[in-house]
Amino acid sequence: MRTWTIMLAVVAFSMSMVGTFLVRSGILTSVHSFAVDPARGSFILALLALYVGGALFLFATRVGTVKEGAGFDLVSRESALVINNLLLSVILGTVFVGTLYPLLAEAVSGEKLSVGPPYFNAVTGPLTLALALLLFIGPLLRWRRDSRPNARRVAAPLLVTVLAFAASFALDPAMSALARLGLAVAAGLAVASLLPLAGRNLRRTPLATWGMVISHLGVAVAIAGAAADTAFTKETLAAARPGETLAVGPWRVRLGSVVPVAGPNWTAVEGRLSASRGGRTIDLQPQSRFFSDPPIETNEAAIRTLWDGQLYAVISGAENGGRWQLRLWWKPLVTLIWLGGGLIALGGLLALLGRWWRGRRRVQVPEPAYA
């Protein structure tokens, strides 16, 4: 486990460096890319070879000095952690291959390929759900060995999962299978995350246990947000004149006017939109910008984040007749993704504080003094 943990750390650092090289060198089109500059790309590639190569060299030469921990059975918390790591590694490999394959195919054959959300959703979605199902039972297992019957302990989360899956058909019969499974697993995982607290004195429960519970609850909330985004997003694409109103989900969006604006190194047309729902009105100002050096046109989306979702607006070039292309999205409950991430961070902080607190309470008893 110790060697495996070190190797995972090296791989995680290596992938962060590879990502930096891909977007900062301009190989991939990204909002984080700089201007095309072979010298800068070569410099980052040299750093990548130095850092990653050095880390792998140190691992290869010193792995023999790492002492292995105690063994563990197949049914144990350690095994659950290993399976967790393997699933995350497969997801990493899937994203890595999906990102680099179009570049390699273009370099070899000259044919441009595009790998987008359909591929990543179809491959990583089921793996993520399998990872979430593992969290149903993993925290309930004992370290090293567990011979207890745990099927009864996960009966309640499994029942909630089945009920949520059935309820999704009544909620939206046309929902995609992946979104339906995501909502069902998220509901079951939310219940399963609380099981480690069952039968405990909550006032005497260690902070590390609270951290684990809150983190796993955060995973459930984030999965629910991602599934809700897939299932309930509404989109409207239309050409509108100033004064016209469009509908997207529960919102009514009116294009008030389109005005020219200028920035430090760009000019733009800015749409003045007002969106209303239930008596509340918010303003949106999407822009279509043009940069002269180098000549490039970009769209600056207007985003308003509310407690129950996010509203997006994008404006592009004018058409004949004074119409402007507007693209509107309403993403209900997508904010749960951020809430889930916050809960995961809070859980990790509580776990660290719990470990620090246990260290402080370990008071070494001094040896008795003899006259």
TrEMBL record:
Positions in coiled-coil regions: none
Bilayer topology term: Multi-pass membrane protein
Assigned keywords, A-Z: Cytochrome c-type biogenesis, Lyase, Membrane, Transmembrane, Transmembrane helix
The UniProt record lists the keyword Transmembrane helix: yes
Entry's Gene Ontology BP terms: cytochrome complex assembly
InterPro entries, per database record: CcmF_C, Cyt_c_biogenesis, Cyt_c_biogenesis_CcmF
Protein name: Cytochrome c heme lyase subunit CcmF
Assigned protein family: Belongs to the CcmF/CycK/Ccl1/NrfE/CcsA family.
Residue stretches making up the Cytochrome c-type biogenesis protein CcmF C-terminal domain: 45-355
Highest taxon listed in the record's lineage: Bacteria
Ranges annotated as spanning the membrane: 41-60, 81-104, 119-141, 153-171, 177-195, 207-228, 333-353
